[in-house]
Amino acid sequence: MRTISNIRPNDRLALRINDAVAMSGLGRSTIYKLIDSEKLRSVKIGKRRLVIRESLESLLLEAR
């Protein structure tokens, strides 16, 4: 049975900033600039900012 605690990072719909940095190879400041310029979608839940995985993947594919 799949529970929240055993979902692998590759299956997550949203990523922590550090995970987005590791996945993309971009720097933290670049990730935040992309969020601020609305080129990268994110959500804020409580104090945590999460990057929408699909948005990050699309951005990286478009940059090819």
Summarize the entry for a quick read:
The chain is of the alpha+beta class and 64 residues long.
List the helices and strands and how they pair.
Elements: E1 14-16, H1 17-24, H2 28-36, E2 42-45, E3 48-52, H3 53-62
Antiparallel strand pairs: 1-3, 2-3
Can you put this structure into words, describing what you see?
With 64 residues, the protein is an alpha+beta fold. It has a single domain (4-62), classed as Molybdopterin biosynthesis moea protein, domain 2 (Alpha-Beta Complex), CATH 3.90.105. It has helices at residues 17-24, 28-36, 53-62; strands at residues 14-16, 42-45, 48-52. A three-stranded antiparallel beta sheet has the order 1-3-2. A hairpin with a 2-residue loop joins strand 2 (42-45) and strand 3. The longest helix has 10 residues, at 53-62. The chain starts with 13 loop residues before the first strand and ends with a helix. The model has no long low-confidence stretch (mean pLDDT 91).
